From TrEMBL:
The UniProt record lists the keyword Transcription: no
Pathway membership: Carbohydrate degradation; pentose phosphate pathway; D-ribose 5-phosphate from D-ribulose 5-phosphate (non-oxidative stage): step 1/1
GO BP: D-allose catabolic process; pentose-phosphate shunt, non-oxidative branch
Record: residues binding D-ribulose 5-phosphate: D8, H9, G67, S68, G69, N70, G71, N100, R110, R134, R138
Superkingdom of origin: Bacteria
Species in which this protein is naturally found: Actinomyces ruminicola
Region (Disordered) location: 135-154
Name under which the protein is recorded: Ribose-5-phosphate isomerase B
Pfam families: LacAB_rpiB (PF02502)
Length: 154
């Protein structure tokens, strides 16, 4: 699995742990920053870069980290083709893949002990989409909205 990852300062330490963990497990991990700890950095650029990379790389998954994961998930979801889910336990992480075919997980690094955060994201990465028709129909409805929604004039 190729995993794209992005974070602000709040998830910087966890990102390092995850990158090593997944590389050791044989995954290819692409780091979209932040690359140094800066307590004043802003999550949108890292999360949007990560989300764009996921869309450009079909079959890959993304992970965006922050303090709560909320803003990170919101930022990722601005990118067309992204379905980012805030994952806060292993079951929610698995359901994000099974039911929603989420291609990005947002997680709050300040909300979990490290081992728990790793378990939640491992569950996300390992779980396939169920492919069940009812779930696909709902995803198609959102994709249809995404394609046809009115765009703001520049
Ligand atoms: O979770 C986040 C956004 O949803 C950010 O990581 C969080 O807001 C950063 O907080 P601070 O600037 O106080 O370190």
């Amino acid at each position: 699995m190729r995993i794209h990852i992005g974070t602000d300062h709040a998830g910087f330490e966890l990102k390092g742990i995850l990158v090593s963990h997944w590389r050791e497990a044989g995954h290819e991990v692409i780091d979209h920053g932040c690359y140094v700890y800066d307590r004043l950095d802003d999550y949108p650029e890292f999360c949007i870069a990560c989300a764009e990379a996921v869309v450009a790389d079909p079959g890959s998954l993304g992970v965006v980290l922050g303090g709560s994961g909320n803003g990170e998930q919101i930022a990722a979801n601005l990118v067309d083709g992204v379905r980012a889910a805030l994952v806060w336990n292993e079951e929610v992480a698995r359901l994000a893949r099974q039911h929603n075919d989420a291609n990005v997980a947002g997680l709050g690094a300040r909300m979990h002990p490290t081992e728990e955060a790793v378990r939640i994201l491992d569950a996300f990465i390992a779980e396939p989409f169920s492919g069940e028709e009812r779930h696909q129909n709902r995803i198609d409805q959102m994709a249809d909205y995404e394609r046809h929604r009115p765009r703001r004039q520049a």
